[in-house]
Amino acid sequence: MTPRDGASKLSLVPGRAGKPGGRPRTNSSIASVAIGLEFIDVVVPITRIREAYPGGWEQCLLDYAPLLGRRVWHDRHLFRDGALTPEDARRLVEGWSVLGFEPAEQRGGALHWKDLCVIQSSHGGPTRPCRWLAFDATQRIAHLAGTDPGPLAWRGAPAPV
Fold first, then answer.
1. Containing domain of residue 136, as a range?
2. Chain centre distance of CA 37
3. How many domains is the chain built from?
4. For residues 117 and 73, is the Cβ–Cβ distance under 8 A?
5. How do residues 105-146 score in pLDDT, each as one tens digit?
């Protein structure tokens, strides 16, 4: 479900008090940004959006413009949409599937996230293994694996400068 189909407007509640703090480091020297997490997050790599979203990244930003800074934010690598319930998250995943994204794949006998990832940060992180995502449960942030998280993209700052 995307803003394009008109069915993705979920009720919004104020964000949790205080932003996630600090900046964890990885061994990578590739600069990035981290995305703040809350409730249930559906995260999609921007490289995949550029490849598969009808109209690419630019169209995705236009389609989601009314939700940026409310329910949606992104860093340089990851696009995040949010849900309040598992049913809402399922609808978001179905919406990406309709657009041609392949949510999950079998790997080594287990189901893994592929083109997107659902994260329940208050319940331990990604709901399935996700090889391209780095998750910090303490700070409730995520970033592209292999990159160094930088400034936070979150409700108050929905996109990198």
1. 35-153
2. 8
3. 1
4. no
5. 999 999 999 999 998 877 778 889 999 988 887 777 777 887
Cα 156 from Cα 25, distance rounded (Å): 23
Residue 1 lies in a domain: no
| C-alpha distance across the termini of the chain, in Å | 28
- Judged on CB neighbours under 10 Å (0-12, 13-18, 19+), 72 is buried
Q: Does a structural domain hold residue 161? A: no
Residue 17 placed within a domain: no
User: HSE-up of 64 (CA within 13 Å, CB side)?
Assistant: 27
Residue 21 domain-assigned (yes or no): no
pTM of the model: 0.73
| 127 CB-near residues (< 8 Å, 6+ apart) | 113, 118, 119, 120
Q: 14-47: per-residue pLDDT in tens?
A: 222 233 333 333 333 334 467 666 788 899 999 9
